[in-house]
Write a structure and sequence with these properties.
mainly alpha
């Protein structure tokens, strides 16, 4: 393979972004549907319809999440170590919330008791709400910088706390994440259901899309007033990873630096607004299939906006600027990146093919008749 170290680092930065976007598009609508479950399902049959709309696909969708975590561990081990040190309790909370999904799906309909089923509905709601919020909170903290540093022996020291992660800007980013996944989940429900649930989902798409775009715009304005980061020394893209071999400065507005140097990048956040508006229109005229595509573009553009704004930073340090992790100094060795790329080129198309095949096989709406006919096998 002829790629040099710089190119491989850029490829893996792009692949990590692609895996996160894949997770947001696939498992994201699962999370959104789970959040909507107690509100759009007015009786037990309707709630079972909502659950079964994602019940057959959510496990496959989580492959993207697991793969993204594996890619971060293997391609960016230093960033992985710092993230799991700094965000340990937040990630543990997310993990426990995700545990509620499989047991919620499997146990909810085992007993006829309404109280039993209502409690599991709340558990499924929590299993969707907490991860959707925390993922956005994590991005909000990355944009502000994380309080960590390395000593001379490259040991990691995190000096923040769990509660410090829940700061106003991070919570605003969390609300962007939550609202966009609710929008995405509502579009998916519009595809998979009919009748009253379909109509309620259509209303949710309108409200959630407007809230998403409003919060995204507000967060964009807010970003101009928070400190961005910039490498002030010469960059050596082909050098071995050493996070301390640079000098970093920060000042308000620097997260817009990439857009100023390459104005074509403004098309990314612009696409988020265009795609979001189209999602509203397409949902309104009952074209949910196309609305799902534009909703996916909205999610993609919002995530790309954050990634492009931060580039080349992966995890800035707010307490020791020179310890900040970037694309150029936090990666695995060139050999590791090359071997992983070969594996990715083999297995990623397989994931894409079987994901497409599963959705094709399981296409069609979930109806009350389906639930009645499969009362013991359906969730």
């Amino acid at each position: 393979m002829i790629f040099d170290y710089e190119t491989m680092r850029l490829i893996w930065w792009a692949l990590l972004g692609a895996l996160l976007i894949g997770f947001a598009i696939t498992d994201g609508f699962d999370l959104g549907v789970a959040v909507l479950l107690p509100f759009l399902g007015k009786n037990d049959t309707e709630r079972r319809i909502i659950i079964n709309s994602i019940g057959s696909v959510w496990e496959g969708n989580q492959v993207w999440f697991i793969t993204a975590g594996g890619a971060l561990f293997a391609a960016w081990p230093i960033a992985y170590a710092v993230a799991f040190s700094g965000f340990y309790f937040a990630l543990l909370l997310t993990l426990f919330a995700l545990f509620l999904r499989p047991i919620g799906f499997d146990y909810r309909s085992k007993l006829p008791s309404q109280k039993w089923r209502n409690n599991w509905d709340i558990a499924l709601f929590v299993g969707g709400f907490v991860p959707a919020l925390i993922f956005g909170v994590a991005f909000g903290n990355l944009l502000q910088g994380v309080p960590f540093h390395f000593d001379n022996d490259m040991r990691i020291f995190y000096t923040g706390s769990f509660w410090a992660l829940l700061n106003p800007f991070a919570l605003a980013a969390g609300l962007v994440s939550l609202s966009m996944l609710i929008m995405h989940g509502a579009v998916y429900l519009q595809i998979k259901t009919g009748g009253d649930i379909n109509q309620r989902s259509k209303k949710v798409v309108l409200v959630a899309a407007i809230i998403t775009l409003a919060l995204f715009a507000a967060a964009g304005i807010w970003v101009t007033h928070i400190d961005g980061y910039h490498i002030t020394t010469e960059i050596f893209p082909n050098a071995p990873s050493n996070p301390l071999a640079k000098i970093v400065s920060k000042e308000p507005g620097l997260w817009l630096d990439n857009y100023e140097h390459c104005p074509v990048l403004w098309t990314i956040p612009t696409l988020a607004f265009v795609a979001g508006a189209l999602t509203i229109v397409l949902s309104k005229i009952d074209r949910p299939g196309l609305a799902f595509i534009t909703s996916s573009l909205t999610l993609t553009s919002i995530i790309l906006t954050a990634g492009v704004s931060m580039f080349p930073f992966l995890m800035p340090s707010s307490s020791a600027l020179n310890s900040s992790l970037t694309v150029w100094d936090a990666s695995s060795s060139l050999t590791t990146l090359k071997l992983m790329l070969v594996a990715t080129l083999i297995f990623l198309p397989i994931v894409l093919v079987y994901t497409t095949w599963v959705f094709r096989v399981l296409r069609g709406k979930i109806t009350p008749e389906h639930i009645q006919q499969n009362d013991h096998s359906a969730y």
